[in-house]
């Protein structure tokens, strides 16, 4: 297990030093970074867990908070925070609460933080080993339900438009793309064409999601030569089974 986290804080104080020591005593490798865009850019890839020590300075770094929010969402970072209620309220103006995995209030119990972070690092490490699926669909209800189903076995990212998918793929390479065939503005076939035309994404496997199972519709979908297609009306068991079979075949 990779027990490494990024501790984001403005400067160094007695509490931050005590926190860092407590984490290290529990076997956690701590990398320290200032809350600046230049500093955070260094850690786009690793580590996957961020611990952000808040302060009154938050009011003056809104651009950094926007960058951190986008980084956590796009790169699937686990974000935990430490601060009092007023600081947390300032943070939530820019970073939605659902993006924050855990918040620790001050005064701080270093032992409690270290134990919790060990657990979060363990879960994060296990998730990182799962196959990564990008789910692309303009229907929010379908996105939420399907992600819930697949989250039990896979690491799932979601976007709700074709152009969002292309933007996401500029910095991320999932193991499989589940792509809605019929979307407004930029359709599934158009997205597939863009994926195949770029060197960095041309080999990414794509399975179309389609609501039509008649022979003519299926023939039209398969003529674009995706790795397959899945009917959107199937149940959880059949959906998971088809994806399991896809990854099994890839092994050989």
State the main characteristics.
alpha/beta, 5-stranded parallel β-sheet, 10 helices, about 45% helix, about 250 residues, Rossmann fold
Structure write-up:
It is a single chain. Helix content is 43%, strand content 19%. It is α/β, with parallel strands linked by helices and 252 residues long. The chain has two domains: 125 residues, Rossmann fold (3-Layer(aba) Sandwich), CATH 3.40.50.2300; 120 residues, Rossmann fold (3-Layer(aba) Sandwich), CATH 3.40.50. A five-stranded parallel beta sheet has the order 2-1-3-4-5, covered by helices on one side. It has a five-stranded parallel beta sheet with strand order 7-6-8-9-10, with helices on both faces. Helix 9 links the parallel strand 9 and strand 10. Helix 1 crosses helix 5 and helix 7 runs parallel beside helix 8. The mean pLDDT is 91.
Give a concise summary.
By secondary structure, this protein is α/β, with parallel strands linked by helices. The protein has 10 helices and 10 strands. Strands 2-1-3-4-5 form a 5-stranded parallel β-sheet, with helices on one face. It has a 5-stranded parallel β-sheet with strand order 7-6-8-9-10, with helices on both faces.
Number of domains: 2
The strand order across the widest sheet is 2-1-3-4-5
Estimated helix fraction:
40-55%
> How far apart are the first and last residues' alpha carbons, in Å?
28 Å
Sketch the topology as an H/E string, one letter per element: EHEHEHEHEHEHEHEHEHEH
Number of strands: 10
Shape: elongated
Question: What structural class is derived from the secondary structure elements?
Answer: alpha/beta
Named CATH topology of the largest domain: Rossmann fold
CATH superfamily of the largest domain: Response regulator
What is the radius of gyration? 21 Å
**Mean pLDDT across all residues, rounded?**
91
């Amino acid at each position: 297990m990779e027990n490494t986290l990024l501790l984001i804080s403005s400067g160094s104080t007695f509490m931050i030093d005590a926190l860092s020591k407590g984490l290290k005593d529990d076997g956690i490798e701590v990398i320290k970074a200032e809350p600046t865009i230049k500093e955070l850019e260094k850690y786009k890839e690793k580590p996957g867990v961020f611990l952000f020590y808040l302060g009154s300075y938050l009011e003056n770094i809104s651009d950094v908070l926007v960058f951190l929010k986008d980084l956590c969402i796009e790169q699937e970072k686990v974000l935990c925070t430490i601060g009092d209620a007023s600081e947390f309220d300032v943070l939530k103006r820019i970073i939605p609460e659902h993006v924050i995995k855990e918040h620790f209030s001050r005064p701080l119990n270093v032992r409690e933080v270290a134990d919790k972070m060990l657990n979060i690092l363990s879960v994060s490490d296990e998730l990182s080993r799962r196959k990564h699926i990008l789910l692309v669909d303009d229907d929010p209800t379908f996105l939420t339900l399907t992600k819930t189903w697949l989250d039990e076995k896979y690491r799932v990212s979601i976007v709700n438009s074709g152009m969002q998918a292309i933007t996401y793929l500029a910095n991320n390479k999932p193991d499989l793309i589940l792509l809605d065939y019929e979307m407004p503005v930029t359709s599934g076939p158009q997205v597939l064409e863009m994926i195949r035309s770029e060197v960095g994404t041309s080999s990414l496997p794509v399975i179309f999601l389609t609501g039509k199972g008649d022979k003519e519709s299926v023939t039209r979908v398969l003529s674009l030569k995706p790795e397959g297609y899945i009917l959107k009306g199937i149940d959880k068991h059949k959906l998971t089974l088809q994806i399991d079979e896809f990854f099994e075949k890839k092994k050989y």
